[in-house]
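Risk register update: the risk of archive-format incompatibility is retired. Evidence:
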Amino acid sequence: MILIVRINVTAFFMMLLALPSMAMAAVTYADVKPILRERCEGCHQAGEIGPMAFGTFRQTRPWAKAIRQAVMERTMPPWHADEETSRRIRNSRALTGSEIEAIVKWVDGGAVEGSALKAVAAAARPTGWQLGKPDLVIRVPGYKVPAQGTVQYTFLVTPTNFTGDRWIAAAEWKIDQRAVVHHMNAFVRPPGSSYLKTAPVNQLYVATKDERLARRDDEKEVDRRELLIGYEPGYQPAPWGEGRAKLIRKGSDVVFEIHYTANGADVEDYSELGIYFAKQTPKERVLSLAPADSKLAIPPHHARYPSSARATFTRDVKLISMQPHMHLRGKDFDIRATYADGRTDALLRVPRYDFRWQTTYFLAEPIVMSRGSSMDFLAHFDNSANNKFNPDPSKTVYWGDQSWEEMNIGFIEVAFPAEADGNVAVLSDTSKPAPGTASGKLVGR
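Archived output:
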C-alpha cells in the first residue's frame, strides 16, 4: 500500500530553511542582561569593588572576551567553595551551567546587542539602609585615609549606655569609602573585659599589638569580646533568622576594628553601623566563635604549609554560618565536622582561597552540632614564588594584622537556646607549635 500525503511544498521548504537559524539562534545582549544584572552589576558599578561598570551594553561590550574567560574559568563571579559543599549554602554567587553557556554563546556570536532594550536602571549601589531604618546608628567620625603608606588597625570604642540587656535581630554596615575599606568588624565588649581596656571612648584610636592581645588568664573568650558583624568585599547584610538574635549585655561597648588600605587618593571615611533591636525575646541566641591557630611560622619557599584549629562543643548548638580567613599566602581551607557518634562530614571546602573575597557561607539549613561534636579548620599556605600574591617568599611568616603577615581563623556562627550562657565550645589551635614561636590563643582579623 502506498500512502500519499499532501503537503504545502512552499511551507515545507520554508520550514527547512528556518531550522538552522532556529537551532543556531544568536544570543544577544538582551538575553544575557538578566544574568549580568543578577550576578555582576552589584559589584561592577560606580563606587563598588568592580574595576569597570556593566550597567549598559556600551559599558559591557569592550569586556566581552574577558567576561567569557572569567566565567569559563569560574573566577567570576567570585565563589570559592567547591560544587559539592556549595549545595548546602544559600548565598552562592556561582553561575549555573546554563548561565555560563549563554554568556559564552553571546561572546562567540560576536557579542551583539540585538534588539534595543528598554531603559532599565542598573542594580544601583544601595545608598540607604537595605534592612530599613536602624534603631541605633554608630558612625566613624571621619577617618582621613592617606593616599599612600600603610594604615594601622584603627579602633573606635562606643559605649551603648543600655539600661538593660538588649537583643539584636540584625546589624548592617553602610560603608562610605568602599575603595579604601579593607574590612570593618564590630565587636561587643562586655563589662570587665580586658580587650582594649585602656582605649579612650568615642574617638579613633590606634592600639598597640600588646594592648589588643592582652587578656586575663581566667577570662573566657566569650567574656572578652564577641563579633557582632563584619564587613569585607562582597558583603551583603543577612539577618540571623526568625526567632534568633545576638545579645548585647547592659554596660557593654561596641568596638569598631577598622582596616583601611591606601589606594592613591586622599579620602575621608564616614562609614556607619546600623543595629536593629529584636521586638521580643528570641527563642535562640546567636553567637560568633573564632577558632584560630596563632602559632604560625610559615618557612620561606614552603608551598603548602599546614595549619589547623578546632572547636569542640560543650552543649548542643546549630551551625548557621562559616567564614574562612587567611591573608595573601592563603591557599586552601577545609572545615570538617566530627559528630559525637563518630560520623565525619565535609562542611566546606575552599580549594582556591582568595583573600580579596572574604565570603561568609550561610547554610540553607542549620546543622546540629551536639555536645561532644567538633569542627576542624584546616588551612594551607603558599609561601613560594609560585604564589603571585606573595609579598616575599624568602621570609618566615608569622601571625599578624597586616596582609603581608598571616592568620588562620575559622569564623562561625551558632544558635542555641536563648536562656543558656555563651560558653558553648572550647577553642584550640591544633597545629604543632613551630620552634621559637608563641602558643597563645589569638582571635581577630
